[in-house]
Amino acid sequence: MATAIDAAARWRELLEDARWAPSPHNVQPWRLRCDADGGAALLCPPDRLLPDTDPAGLFTAVGIGCFIESLAVAAAAQDLSLTVRRTGANPGDVEPVALLALAPGGRDRLERAFLHRRRTSRLPYDGRPVDLGLLEELERIASGFGHRWTATDDRELVDWVVALNRETLFLDMADPVARGEVGRWLRFSAAEAARVATASHPLSSASRAGCSGSSSAVIDCWRSRGFGTLRTRCTAEQCEERAPSPGCGARSRPWTTGSSRDACSCACG
After folding, report:
1. Which residue, among 57, 62, 55, has the nearest Cα to 178 in the 3D structure?
2. Three-state secondary structure call for residue 196
3. To which H or E segment does residue 16 belong?
4. What tens digit of pLDDT does each residue of 12-34 get?
């Protein structure tokens, strides 16, 4: 019994560090169940999923991977190694998606403190290139873990990635499905809920850019100020008509880069 209690305490301690891992919309889909043998089962219950914006569970799976790696970092700080065995279950299944175990002798990883210092920056890209020395350091770190780090100074590619990130933000703000699902994860007091219903609508922050009015008017205003284009979804028929390559046809998936609400383009999926 004492061993089981000690193991549960150890997993709880590791969880305090690993829970800082990033996850889609901060839903933190992971749950740990301590087993009698000292291991733990990793579960991802259906009430922690995003069926509207992540129907295939791919975004959630990435978050679970980040969580497992964070557990490994926390374990290594205590001279423990983490082993992971996939079960074949998927996020949302009743069965665990993985079985975890701890053993002595954790290999070197990133410092545990980095788990708590991690941040997601919402600041605009200022256009400055990353210091070459930092890129070389990242390459050395990645190589030490058996990975290959690559970076690019291709201006066209950098601009495309920055624009894609910006337009994705606009999609989350403008799409009622995405906005509704994210909103379901927010918890407010009665007073805060009343304020959110008016001034704190996701689009209301646009007022800092001098934009006001209805949602569509705000989006148009932001777009006119160079904050990016509004992304709209193409219909299957439009994709069929605008297939970017011969034979793409039914494999086309909706994608948007248009400069107006009526414009769209498609990419092969």
Report:
1. 55
2. helix
3. helix 2-18
4. 999 999 999 999 888 999 999 99
